[in-house]
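User: Just a sanity check before I run the rest of the batch. Below are the structure tokens for the first item. I only need the designed sequence back.
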């Protein structure tokens, strides 16, 4: 079985990068991962980094991104925030890996039963916003919940999907990404992780 090693061995195009991520997820689901996280693999990747993808995901402890895509050291850049919410630091990090490291793929990964989305639904229903910076997460996720509608019995799972798509659209319109995306050098795609099966399913952009 041929699998990608460190970095750009996965291929330099958005299509090849996405194919490798999904192939790694299939290895993960099948119980046949090939990349162990040991010190020799770390040492092998200790030179210049050449990742082929950046994955923006949630902080949920049940969704370890390198593991679910069966990726080794140096292969992907990982960014995690509550509900994969964007802020200036996240945007700047993605702009860096795309502009400076030449990464051709940005994957926004949501997951079923997301607590951040659930907290946002609860906050909007009760009218009581949380204090501190947690309020920022709620404010950023709230438009997705509102678009679905609080009266929809499936508001939580539908809002998760809507929030992924909104994040994808926001990144595609980013000042430093819009050009590479339009030229086809970079793809920004969304996906959803199933906590029960471990499978990642791509979401259509609408």
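Assistant: Here's the designed sequence for the first item:
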């Amino acid at each position: 079985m041929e699998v990608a090693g460190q970095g750009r061995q996965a291929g330099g195009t958005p299509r090849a990068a996405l194919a490798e991520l999904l192939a790694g997820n299939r290895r993960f689901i099948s119980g046949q991962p090939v990349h162990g996280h040991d010190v020799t693999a770390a040492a092998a990747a200790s030179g210049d980094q050449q990742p082929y993808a950046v994955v923006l995901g949630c902080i949920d402890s049940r969704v370890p991104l390198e593991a679910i895509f069966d990726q080794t050291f140096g292969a992907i850049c990982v960014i995690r925030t509550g509900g994969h919410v964007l802020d200036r630091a996240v945007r700047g990090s993605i702009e860096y890996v795309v502009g400076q490291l030449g990464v051709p793929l940005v994957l926004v990964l949501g997951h079923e039963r997301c607590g951040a989305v659930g907290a946002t639904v609860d906050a909007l229903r009760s009218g009581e916003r949380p204090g501190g910076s947690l309020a920022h997460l709620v404010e950023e996720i709230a438009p997705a919940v509102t678009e679905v509608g609080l009266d929809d019995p499936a508001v939580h799972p539908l809002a998760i999907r809507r929030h992924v798509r909104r994040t994808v659209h926001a990144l595609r319109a980013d000042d430093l990404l819009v050009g590479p995306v339009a030229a086809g050098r970079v793809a920004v795609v969304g996906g959803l992780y199933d906590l029960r099966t471990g499978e990642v399913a791509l979401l259509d952009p609408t």
